[in-house]
Amino acid sequence: MNTILEARKLSMNFGGLRALDRVDIDVLPGQITALIGPNGAGKTTFFNCITGIYSPTEGDIFITPPGGRQKRITGFNIHRVTESGVARTFQNIRIFPDMTVLENVMIGRHCRTNTGVLGAILRDKGTMEEEKAIVARSYEILKKIGLTEHVNLLARNLPYGAQRRLEIARALATDPFLLLLDEPAAGMSSQETKDLEALIISIRDEWEISVFLIEHDMRLVMGLSDSVYVMDYGEMIARGTPQEIRQNPEVITAYLGEDVSA
Amino acid sequence: MSNLYNTKYMEGMKQSVVVSLWFMFLTFPIMVIRVNTIENIIEWRWMNMIYVGAGSFILSFIWRYLSGKDISKRKESIDARGERRSILQRLVSEKKLSLPALAIVFGIAIIFPFVSSTYQTNIMTTALMYVVLGLGLNIVVGQAGLLNLGYVAFYAAGAYTYALLYHHFGVGFWVALPLGALAATILGVLLALPILRLQGDYLAIVTLGFGEITRLVLENWNEFSFGPSGISGIPRPGLFGMEMGMHDATVYLYFLMIMLCIITIFVVNRLQDSRIGRALLALREDEIACQAMGIDKTRVKLTAFALGSTWAGLVGVIFAAKTTFVNPASFTFLESAMILSIVVLGGTGSIIGIIIGALLLILLPEYLRAFSDYRMLLFGLIMVIMMIFRPQGIVTGVRRTYEFHTEEK
């Protein structure tokens, strides 16, 4: 089967602690894939390994851009992963607080543009056109995400839910084919979560970007995902459709603990 | 109601009394005791103590009034964007205001050397040099958020480039100017390479060490830099081989500095709102997120250091030409600290703030000479007060806003 992201026997050690233990994962194009698991299961570590924040101890990561060839990205620098078309958001929001909302998104265009120092000083025709295109594209993205009323607001002044959406907008600006969302619904109200659900679906269907997300909100995960992976103590313990996962005894044990009396 | 007012008033009184007692106690050794070395007696100047007490009592009232007012003002004047804009910021960002203001400033700058003494022009030239240094350091510290305490090393690189090139090869000012900038840029990149992985405190310590190493090398490597005695007899910049007197040369240098200032402001301003400028800002805001946006951290850091140190190199060459003499004593840590103070006091990231900061920090000590002994004391006091009331600097940087006229379909 053709995958868009593949992890093979991915392991990550922190000193004596094995945070990831030979994890295999296949993300399929055009799908929403979810990664769930109890706290400390290694989900974020897994994301960090894929996006180059950590360099995995063992194993390999491959990506296959749509219409492209498979490429090994193990141990890539963070910015090269993004350049390759895999964008991400963070569990604890990491927007640029003292830049405006629009500028936050404009930063996302950095790796798809190439004005240098000289161009910035001379402001030649090419630079100006590129700058215009950056602004136009960023605005377009904000429009789709629904943040246009706050374009010139400093990002720090945005309400919490909007900050999370801004992070997604910013990631989308890098023209990814795969978007990794680390707990996008954390701390959101039920209405905000509903909006987020619609947004994620539109990212898959309208933007044609595959989504891979970590989430604790089970209602969201089950309603949204095409396939679900479950992780516990750094190991992948189950994979399947939301239906299958719901009935998997191992998953239930991982979440609720072993029934001692049985 | 009046009761409440009274208790508040009494509280204020009590606080002020405590403050003035503290001040009397703290300033006791310097204000009251005086050793008369001629007659070998100790003078007790009790009157001074009373002055200090009364002065600090009144000042503490003014202080409380100001800080109280500040808070209430902050609540009121948040505009639609949720940001406070000062008069200075509006002066910069609104064309209707900024063009006439610019014309006036420019006019004053042109007339200045013709209506003031050589001494005044000289000081102003120095202040302008620090404007450029401040703007240069701001690229590294203010925009990219990389605390650099060794900035003076690049300044020295420029100065020594000119001094040595002249000494050995007789190279003139105009040739040395770009070479000095180049030398500083290269040094900047060389320094940036080993410290790419460092952040925050560690970065500060390493850059501090780098600055000191540079100075020590210049001081001790006699064959290369002629040690503490330095290099003298460096020619002032020429103008088509014309001979100039002391006054004319000073005025000429002043206009050179004005030109360099304009170029610096122009370039820095354009960089700020460019793709590169945004990348620098993103690096300051969040290093991980910045990289996750596809920005090559290494490249951005190198760019920041290179861009920042170029200006120091340029000013260094001008410094050598201005004083016609360089030695390591001009490039101590105090210089780095001074330039950093300009950036912080002026307002990190704000061009106009840094210009004002530089002018204040350089001109103030000169004009405070009237207070002779208390000059540095007053200077320090002003800085402390500034940092308490405006920790964000005189002018805070304002991000560019964009307008969109979209017709909804």
Strand order of the largest sheet of chain A: 6-7-8-3-9-10
Compressed to H and E, one letter per element, the order of chain A equals EEEHEEHEHHHHEHEHEEHH
Count of helical stretches of chain B: 16
Question: How many strands of chain A?
Answer: 10
**Total separate domains of chain B:** 2
Question: What structural class do helix, strand and pairing data of chain B support?
Answer: mainly alpha
What's the CATH topology name of the largest domain in chain A?
Answer: Rossmann fold
How big is the Rg of chain A? 19 Å
Low-confidence stretches of chain B: 70-83
Shape designation of chain A: globular
Report the sheet-strand fraction of chain B.
under 5%
User: What's the average pLDDT of chain A?
Assistant: 90
**Helix/strand-derived class of chain A?**
alpha/beta
Radius of gyration from the alpha-carbon trace of chain B, in angstroms: 25 Å
User: What portion of the residues of chain A fall into strands of 2 or more residues?
Assistant: 15-25%
| Average residue pLDDT of chain B | 84
Principal-axes geometry of chain B comes out as globular
User: Termini separation of chain A (Å)?
Assistant: 41 Å
Query: Spans of chain A with pLDDT under 50 lasting ≥5 residues?
Result: none
Count of all domains of chain A: 2
List the helices and strands and how they pair.
The complex is a heterodimer of chains A (262) and B (409).
Chain A: E1 5-14, E2 17-27, E3 32-36, H1 43-50, E4 58-63, E5 71-72, H2 78-83, E6 86-88, H3 101-108, H4 117-122, H5 125-145, H6 160-172, E7 178-182, H7 190-205, E8 210-214, H8 218-224, E9 227-232, E10 235-240, H9 242-247, H10 249-256
Parallel strand pairs in A: 3-8, 3-9, 6-7, 7-8
Antiparallel strand pairs in A: 1-2, 1-4, 4-5, 9-10
Helix pairs in contact in A: 3-5, 3-6, 5-6
Chain B: H1 2-32, E1 33-36, E2 41-44, H2 46-76, H3 87-93, H4 95-115, H5 118-143, H6 152-169, H7 173-192, H8 200-220, H9 222-225, E3 231-232, H10 246-272, H11 275-285, H12 287-292, H13 297-323, E4 325-326, H14 333-346, H15 351-367, H16 375-389
